[in-house]
Amino acid sequence: MRVPMLFIAAVAAIAAVGGSAPLKAQSNEEIVLADPAFSLTFAAGYIATDLDLWQKHGIKVKTVQLSGIAAINSVISGSAQFAQASASSFGRASARGQKLIAIATTIDRPFAQVVLRKEIAQAGGFDAKAPLEKRAALLKGRTIAVDSINSMIHAYLRLIAARAGFKPDEVRIAPMAPNSMLAAFQSKQIDGYAMSLPWPLKAVQDGEALLIASGPDGEPGDMIPFGHNLIVARQDTCVQKKALCQAVGQSIKDATAFIKDKPDEAFAVLKKRFPTLDEPLLKASFDELRKVTPSPPVVLKASIENSEIFNVDAGLLKPDEKLKSYDGLFTDEFVK
């Protein structure tokens, strides 16, 4: 979804104005929340919107979809006040001097999966019980789709390749939207794809692909905890408009509690967001989501630390770019 330039300029202008005193969240105040893709990953935001949780806490939220790292970049530029973003994107931005803060996490381990065409995997001797490194070796030289370059999904694929012992660049990358991935996979234009659920699970359930790597199943094991999805803002936003960050944090807290404590009702809400997906597929994906949804959605220091290891191992951050301290990068103040 494209955001009109006049709207972006207006939001940026509003963000630039205002004093140092906290802004009280009011029911007529509208903010922008940027999502990197359309995926079950962002379920907490969907729940907050569809159950009017934002309004409950005194704000209006306009959600826009900006592919991949464009979402977090919109916060950096000031055209959005908040974004749902991975710890990978957040960590790279923070390491390069951007003053951001993570106020909540809605998924606490990698929620991405990598699938490969069944006949290709079987020809390579695929063994579901083999170590991750052996399964991932089947990706070398293959064409794999991701949502966008340098996104969390792309980074996850690069990490899996590195753990298999070959250069991440030895996987050919085809960036495309999830629906396009399915079409390209079925027409054999790509050999496989990496994406968050429910998209990879569909090809597996249809018997067309085999699962090479699965973050929800704890692969790789040293990346837990990991902030696969953070609620991110600029640090000055949560200083100057503390009540606004409080309202967003409490809305997300309510949304994650709803997912954990009322699964049937939460699934019914999310089903309306994915009307074209088979219900068994969506239900299986939702069950995986609940496993990795923390309640309360507190950001942990270990999640930020692991994001840096993740980025370095994936080749997206140089070892000497790692931060010396994580002070000021995360808080639990707004989700208590």
3D structure, described in words:
The strands form two sheets. The protein has a five-stranded mixed beta sheet, with helices on both faces. A five-stranded mixed beta sheet has the order 7-6-8-5-9, sandwiched between helices. With 336 residues, the protein is of the alpha/beta class. The longest helix is centred in the C-terminal third of the chain and has 20 residues, at 242-261. It has two domains: 5-109 and 225-321, D-Maltodextrin-Binding Protein, domain 2, CATH 3.40.190.10; 112-222, D-Maltodextrin-Binding Protein, domain 2. It has helices at residues 5-16, 43-50, 53-56, 70-77, 87-95, 118-123, 132-136, 152-163, 178-186, 199-205, 235-240, 242-261, 263-271, 279-291, 301-313, and strands at 30-35, 60-65, 82-85, 100-107, 112-117, 143-146, 172-175, 192-196, 209-214, 229-234. It is globular.
Given the C-alpha coordinates, what overall shape results? globular
Low-confidence stretches: 1-23
CATH class of the largest domain: Alpha Beta
CATH superfamily of the largest domain: Periplasmic binding protein-like II
CATH topology of the largest domain: D-Maltodextrin-Binding Protein, domain 2
Across the major sheet, the strand order is 2-1-3-10-4
Largest sheet: 5 strands, mixed
Sequence of secondary-structure elements: HEHHEHEHEEHHEHEHEHEEHHHHH
Rg is 19 Å
Can you name the CATH architecture of the largest domain? 3-Layer(aba) Sandwich
Proportion of residues in β-strands:
15-25%
Question: Helix segment count?
Answer: 15
Could you tell me how far the N terminus lies from the C terminus, measured between alpha carbons in angstroms?
33 Å
Return the average pLDDT rounded to an integer. 90
What is the strand tally? 10
Class from secondary-structure proportions: alpha/beta
Helix content: 40-55%
